[in-house]
Amino acid sequence: MTALTVARPGLRHPATAGAQRRETFTLVAMMAPAAIVFAAFFLLPLVQLFIIGAGGKDGVAAYGRILTDPRYVTSLAVTVALSTNVTVATLIVAGIAGVFLTRHRFPGHALLTSLLTLPLAFPGVVVGFMVIMLAGRQGLIGDIAQRITGEKLVFAYSMAGLFMGYVYFSIPRVILTVMAAAEKLDPKLEEAARTLGAGTWQVVRDVILPGLKPALLSAGAICFATAMGAFGTAFTLATRINVLPMAIYTEFTLQANIAAAAALSFVLGAVTWAALVVARTAAGSSVAAAG
Amino acid sequence: MTSIAVRLEACAKTFADGTRALHPVDLEFRPGEKVAILGPSGCGKTTTLRIIAGLEMPDAGGRVWFAGEDVTALPVEKRNVGMVFQNYALFPNMTVAENVAYGLKIRGAGRSEREQRVMKMLEMMRIRELAERRIDQLSGGQRQRVALARALAVSPRVLLLDEPLTALDAKLRDSLRIEIDALLRGLDVLAIYVTHDQAEAMALGDRIIVMSQGRVAQAGTPREIYHHPANRFVAEFVGTLNRVPGRIAGDQIETPGGRLPWPRGGSGTVEVFFRPESVTLADGGGQLAGTVTSHFFLGDRTRLVIDLGGHPIIVETVARREFRNGEAVRLDVDPATLFTLS
Amino acid sequence: MRRPGFYLQLAFTLLVCAFLIVPVFMSILAGLTHNYFLGVASGLTFEWVAKVWELYAETIYRSIGIALACLAVTLVLGVPAAYVLAKRQTALTRAIEELLVMPVAVPGLATALALIVTFGGFRDLRTSALFILIGHVLFTLPFMVRSVLAVMSSIDLKTLEESAATLGASFVQRFFSVVLPNCRSGILAGALMVVTLSIGEFNMTWLLHTPLTKTLPVGLADSYASMRLEIGSAYTLVFFLMIVPLLIALQAVSTPRRKKPLPQEAAPGTAP
Questions:
Q1: Which residue, A110, A149, A155, C120, shows the most beta carbons closer than 10 Å to its own?
Q2: Strands B69-70 and B63-66, how do they pair?
Q3: Residues of B at the A interface, defined by Cβ within 8 angstroms
Q4: Which of C220, C232, C145 is closest to C189 using CA atoms?
Q5: Distance (Å) from the C-alpha of residue A16 to the closest C-alpha of chain B?
Q6: How far apart are CA C157 and CA C186, in angstroms?
Q7: How far, in Å, CA of B70 to CA of B73, rounded?
Q8: Gap from A15 CA to chain B (nearest CA, Å)
Q9: What is the DSSP letter of A84?
Q10: Per-residue pLDDT tens over the stretch B100-120
Q11: Which residue, among C10, C20, C138, would best test binding to A if mutated, counting the most A CBs under 10 Å from its CB?
Q12: CB-based contact (8 Å) between A5 and chain B?
């Protein structure tokens, strides 16, 4: 008796099932190391942190208390205001420079571009030191001011210094994003606008800005998130301004108030994460941030 | 190369999303044969090829036989097939020579053996001087040759070609078609081409398998397919076809343009088919009368659209004269070329 | 003739560039000046660089060591993970991709705090450089995965693998001879990014380090706070020497090479 071959279309071939299982197994095995390390050293600790944040005398209410305690509210408000200003300033500065570099070619163009993006991965501490170099007690701006007005101008350790540092480390990244987006703008749209009688300012307003909007939104959100979480610069400037990361650090090291530090970390994480979700939906591009 | 027979038995394919790409088919390929699988996109031709290669598994019950050996469960890398992909899928990280040597290296062939074989393949494809080039330095036609050399280097049991000429421009396609045909005819290997281009299928295949909607519409020699299409789909897909309604009256058939001889008997109303080249312009007399509605001078011939009592037909003529729209013409049709379809 | 707007914008861009680059040169100069308060007139010297080496050589070696270890770990974890994400695009893999990016979104301070409250109790781990390495791996892994994934998604990986399979290559052979070599550019860009970020990481490291596991940026912060300006500057100079070549290489890698034009198609019927 030979078995008749009966086609059973729609049913998976037994060998197919085997092959697919093998492939799935291989893929799971390849993902497993990253997944395990990530779960053990990131997800689990975050959960632990959350529990500890709720483990103080106030319990889960600790998270709510952050929003009522004037100390923390001020800190949060200051950080948000600073980050917003930094974002707006950086977008304007980097937007102009980025569009300019995309639309014009001239000798030294490549060098200028790479110099502008060089500080991309400078850590916050080094950026802080750059601010000291510019606006510190022996800084360039102070020297120049002294020569002109006879009075030394030192603002590195104030809000202005912090603002300067945050703009410093945001510029390279925003320029890169703006340039990538401006590269994709169709120059014909601008030509079309010009044939219709639009002046320079009208072209900027009606053609260039709308074309760059997704990139600007995305870059702005990343810039905002990075400024919210930046710690190294504030630390180096040893500023008395109580930005949120400094508040967390102080609670943790000086007050040994781990619960408050944990709760504040969570609030900070939530704000930056939300900003980055905005970035992602605005442009769908990759998120980049530096230390 | 040792050529083998390949047999598909009740092979169907249903994808994970439930679409049925292939209804159960039985197909047989003889050793050394050159077969073209022809059909529009989505007809299941590529799926059939991928089932033979082992890149897809047939649904339960389907079996693939290589020379009497059931290879259904044998993974692709163990089947020893040669495949030329539509976009060639050459490895960009390797030179031309390394691409061709890849399969030999995988099989553990020694260095000198590899080099010899690679040189032989490159010479056969007439691209010896490209050996050290990178893939991105090659033109489309050169890539095609490398892909073929790579597939043949491992002496495959069966050579599979997925739309091998589609990515090339028309002129290059014609010359490469002739070259590939001559080359493969010299090799004793079963070659199966998948194509949507009927001219390519006719030129390359000893046999053509026409597929439609996941089923085999007809299998046969190019002449059988062209002259005796088994059904309307094949008749319309392969070549240009004229169709006019007719009524059989004894040994004649009445059409809107006049009466044609009809030696095949039967009665009642039918649709009668014929190819453009079966029609000749009659100087005087002629079986049919029509009016030229448009004309296209193609250089070697002129294509005419002629209205036969409200039914347009296409006629090609080599007559070196000009045509005018509205001009009345008389036509003869070779009665042996007339056919009807059930 | 360029319009005046061009020069206005050029001047603005040069000003922005000066804002970024002038302090870099100032700090380099300060690190090489005998007494910065008196200015360059006080003479150029390597004494501060030598002093930095004497005080902080250990942190430099440690940072390099951690960066290389971090690179090794992210390669081993990240490249296979990117392959899976490229191969299977399901709701699950997309969720994993999102999760993997979280350590970049969550401030380093919070991640470090989470690590400390969870694993700080393990004294041997807490006091070793391994603890810092864990933080760096979390932070840099997304960059490796994204960089490799970007390249994998841009090439027709599936067909290349199928073509290797028809030529007899097993999964492992395909992965090493076809998949990895064709993702070289992504792996290289990812590797440079990982090393650069690891060497400069401060936010997490400041909380994770112990007096015996100081890294370069931790040392920098230390020198800025407690040493004279010249030493901080010289130390920064050493840091620039390490990181600027990496950043330049990164720029070179991420600028797409211009494709050479295809040679003319062969004339019909003739061998090219």
A1: A155
A2: antiparallel
A3: 9-14, 20, 23-24, 57-63, 72-73, 75
A4: C145
A5: 6
A6: 14
A7: 8
A8: 5
A9: H
A10: 999 999 999 899 999 999 999
A11: C20
A12: yes
- pLDDT score of C131 more than 90: yes
ipTM of the complex: 0.83
Residues 6+ apart with CB under 8 A from A219: A91, A94, A173, A174, A177, A178, A279
| Contact state of C13 with A276 under an 8 Å Cβ cutoff | no
**Cα–Cα dist B35/B30, whole Å:** 9
* Residues lower than pLDDT 70 in chain A: 1-7, 15-16, 56-58, 239, 282-291
Residue written as tokens 């992965």?
C175
- What is the C-alpha to C-alpha distance for residues C68 and A65, in angstroms, rounded to an integer? 43
What tens digit of pLDDT does each residue of B147-187 get? 999 999 999 999 999 998 887 888 888 888 888 888 888 88
Chain B residues with beta carbon closer than 8 angstroms to that of A11: 59-61
Measured between alpha carbons, how far is A234 from A245 in angstroms, rounded to an integer? 8
Take residue C180 and report the two structure tokens written for it: 């990895």
What pTM does this model have? Answer: 0.84
**φ/ψ of residue B328, rounded to 5:** -85, 135
Burial of B45 from C-beta contacts in 10 A (0-12 / 13-18 / 19+)? buried
8 A C-beta contact, residue B329 and residue B306: yes
Phi, psi of B296 (to 5 degrees): -125, 115
How far is CA B141 from its chain centroid?
Answer: 19
CA distances for C124 relative to B339, C129, C210, angstroms: 91, 10, 12
* Mutation choice for B interface testing from C90, C166, C172 by most B CBs within 10 A: C166
